[in-house]
Amino acid sequence: MTANGGVVAGAVTLDPDRPIDRAIERCLFGALLLFILAAPHSIAVTQGAFALGLALWVARMIAARRLTIVRTPVDWPLAVFVIWTGISVATSLDPAWSLGRMRGVMLVLILWLFASNVQSRRTAWLLALALVLSVAGNLWWTYLERIQGRGVKIATMGASPLKKWGVLPGDTILEVGGKPVDDLESLNAAFEGGRGREPITVRFTHGESDTTTSYRRGRVRREGDGVERLAVTVEPGRDFRARAYFSHSATYAETLQIIASMLAAWVVCSAIRDRKWAFWMGLLLVATAGALVQTQTRAPIVAFGIALLSMVFLRGGSRKILLGAGIATLAVLFAGGWFILRGREVQILSPADQSTQWRLTVWSEALPILAAHPLFGIGPDAAKHRAGELQLFEGGKLPPGHFHSTPLQIAVDRGIPALLAWLTFVGVLVASLGRLVRRLTVRENEEGSDWRVTATVLGAWGGLLGFFISSLVHFNWGDSEPMQMAWAVAGIAFAVGHLEKKREAEDALR
């Protein structure tokens, strides 16, 4: 509050001569930096940094005696979306169950946390740089795991007792009795000890599925070596989808798409300004794109290609840069297609494969529910909890989950008004950040402004554009890890926009 009781919306710098103010500013920056560094790796650390950042933000406002919230172009559509979500929770088929989804909705505060507390353009691009460099913390594991392999793949199989567990040639055994196996010796040793009639579990992958079955340990005889005893030959398992430290490859893919887009923006913006930056960021981009294709997740791979070309067009690059972006896009798409065809039982663009059929099935099931509940929906996540009652997921043949499309999921869960608010948010965000990139590019060309600031906003624009494109066939806005990252990069970009408005206002007064 001001002395007159009004609310001040905007970033405020505390008194650097007061120790408590200095401590708050430094700790708040530390919380934002920790959030950024942890985002590609650990949801627990990221959410801890988020909670700490909120607490320090409140402390900062108390110290400043002002409500310091930066206004952004997306405030109103997001406010409508959050309010409508609250109403849909109250009118849900299962309000108590749907209430848990509000935790995910509240992650939108990340946008305002960053937008309101990034105090300078330098801080903005440093945070963006920290995010893209942090990805190296999981890239090493992605490539090492690919080289070493995960589990053991059954190359050939005779009269093997493993058939009792449902294991077939081509399957990859990951664990036996809860312990990982990585060669024939460890596979053989896993069946040692215990009672013959005691059940033992075998976890293995078969095509797209991850299966765990149990059978009597005594089915494997006690004597003999691995080949004689198990009647199999094995090789390192490499037909897997990279996921680094995440629980699912699609989650890893969505985070990599955002980071790869931000890296591409730095390469595009530095290609003329600073070749050294372009070289090193280009190397990291190649490594990140390589990890992205190893996730074998089609939508984020395609989304990154579209984002890359769109960023070059928005930036206004030369024909040479545009040609290079086109070649890079084709290389990523071809590499992604090779990995997908080699490692998954799906086709690139076929409605007949299992993954596409799954989506077509749940989409067709969702439409009648939307028609019956168009205003407030059935409540967030109620479809999963009431799947049997609503006769969803092919009568229980498919695992209960979500509808594999963010717009459709929002409409079914929260109603058509919430979907319209969401689409308005997407349109306003893409348009407003696109205009900001254009202004920064002009200022950069005419006044020699820092190209790294332009790269930060351009990368955020591209990463979010790709995230929205992928959301058409993925419910990625229900996945906390990439969603947190998306809100953060949006907040950083809007912070730059706020700082630019202040700078333009100051220039107008001179």
Written account of the structure:
This protein is α+β, with helices and mostly antiparallel strands and 510 residues long. It folds into two domains: 75-96 and 121-144 and 247-501, no CATH class; 150-236, PDZ domain (Pdz3 Domain, Roll), CATH 2.30.42.10. The chain contains 22 helices and six strands. Strands 1, 2, 3, 4, 5 and 6 form a six-stranded antiparallel beta sheet that branches. Helix 7 (121-134) crosses helix 21 (451-470). It is globular and about 90 Å long. The two termini are 29 Å apart. The relative contact order is 0.13. Mean pLDDT is 86; it is low at 1-11.
Percentage of helical residues? Answer: 55-70%
SSE order in H/E notation?
Answer: HHHHHHHHEEEHEEHEHHHHHHHHHHHH
Give me the count of strands.
Answer: 6
Q: What is the quaternary state of this protein? A: single chain
Give the total of domains.
2
Helix/strand/pairing class, anyone? alpha+beta
Tally of individual helices: 22
Biggest β-sheet description: 6 strands, antiparallel
Distance between the amino and carboxyl termini: 29 Å
Net shape: globular
Query: Average pLDDT, to the nearest integer?
Result: 86
Unreliable segments of 5+ consecutive residues: 1-11
Strand content: 5-15%
